[in-house]
Design a protein that fits this description.
Length: 361
């Protein structure tokens, strides 16, 4: 079934980037795997939808091509070709059976099938949430993930400890198998990688009983992640070689850590700046005042409110925002003044306002 990214995020197709971002934050917070009622599958679906709809170009392609668009690859998925009849294509060339993959390989590889790196470990991606206040300093997070690690019994070789390797009988130690392929263009001599030895030309005399010859086993591992101060939502940290271990000692994949910075109940982040609302009384707005507030790091500072101020007035406090991620210094804190009208007045207060009214205030 085709994926509807708009439905996944619960937004209309006309949703603005800000509405899409707000919907993503809300759902990501709700379904994050670390939460009590989290749902890892749902969380991944939400993240996939956001990656497409938050990117102007990807969203435009998705809107145009729908399910034929593969947001992760920036192109088309196989779903976009479900209506193609490859047998009709083949019949146009005498009805011969055609292996299109082999045909493309021959065109691109000059008659030799390309060797796919099936031994390299796959990449992994995890998502972690951190509070806004934590981005003020560098931090280290430890996470547990299930992944493939190098087999300790055979050291990743795939052979039982104390045993040797022998020549592969399938390819006679060459690591390659030659064959003739017939296509509508004629016969082609072709060489492919031997699947039995993965092109190595050797196989274990006795397969490792721990990893069944793969050279790796699945295991829970604790990984430390260094998170720099000032990091923002959706930034990705790459840990090279921390993905799944490769087969038979091959290169390990990488681990990609996507950061979600949680929304704060008091401070709104805008790049490296912070915005907060500060309620003040009518008398403070008219006469001015000096008010004590708590910053994001919980330290107390005094803010001077000028007299005759209007609601919505914004005051600036320098260097009290978010640290710059890749540079020195910090953003600013902006304080928006909100004049509060009392819901209920005492008799004396009413009399005072009556007097002010007579004075034209």
């Amino acid at each position: 079934m085709a994926k509807d990214y708009y439905e996944t995020l619960g937004v209309a197709k006309t949703a603005t980037p800000e509405e899409i971002k707000k919907a993503f934050y809300k759902l990501a917070h709700k379904y994050h795997p670390d939460k009590k009622e989290g749902d890892e599958k749902k969380f991944k679906e939400i993240n996939e939808a956001y990656q497409v709809l938050s990117d102007k170009n990807k969203r435009a392609q998705y809107d145009q091509f729908g399910s034929g668009f593969n947001g992760g690859q920036g192109g088309f998925s196989s779903q976009g070709f479900n209506n193609a009849n490859w047998q009709d294509f083949a019949s146009g060339f005498g009805g011969q059976d055609i292996n299109l993959e082999d045909l493309f390989d021959m065109f691109q590889g000059g008659g030799t099938r390309r060797r796919r790196n099936t031994k390299r470990g796959s990449d992994l991606e995890v998502v972690i949430s951190i509070p806004l206040s934590s981005v003020l300093e560098n931090q280290v997070k430890k996470i547990k993930i299930n992944k493939f690690v190098t087999c300790s019994s055979c050291g990743g070789k795939g052979a039982e400890a104390g045993t040797a390797f022998k020549t592969c009988k399938t390819c006679s130690g060459t690591g390659r198998i030659e064959e003739v392929r017939k296509t509508f263009l004629g016969s082609f001599a072709q060489t492919r990688v031997c699947e039995d030895c993965d092109g190595e030309g050797k196989v274990p005399e006795k397969i490792c009983s721990t990893c069944s010859g793969e050279g790796r086993v699945e295991k829970e591992e604790i990984i430390e992640i260094q998170i720099g101060k000032g990091i923002d939502t959706n930034q990705v940290i790459k840990l090279q070689g921390k993905g799944n271990a490769g087969k038979k000692g091959a290169e390990a994949g990488d681990l990609y850590v996507r950061i979600i910075v949680e929304e704060d109940p008091v401070f709104e982040r805008r790049g490296d700046d912070l915005l907060m609302n500060l309620p003040i009384s009518i008398s403070q707005a008219v006469l001015g005042d000096k008010v004590k507030i708590k910053t994001l790091e919980k330290s107390e500072i005094f803010v001077k409110i000028p007299d005759s101020v209007q609601t919505g007035k914004i005051l600036k406090v320098s260097n009290r925002g978010i640290p710059h991620f890749s540079a020195f210094g910090r953003g600013n804190l902006y304080i928006q003044l909100i004049i509060e009208i009392p819901k209920k007045l005492t008799k004396e207060q009413k009399e005072l306002f009556q007097k002010l009214k007579k004075e034209g205030l």
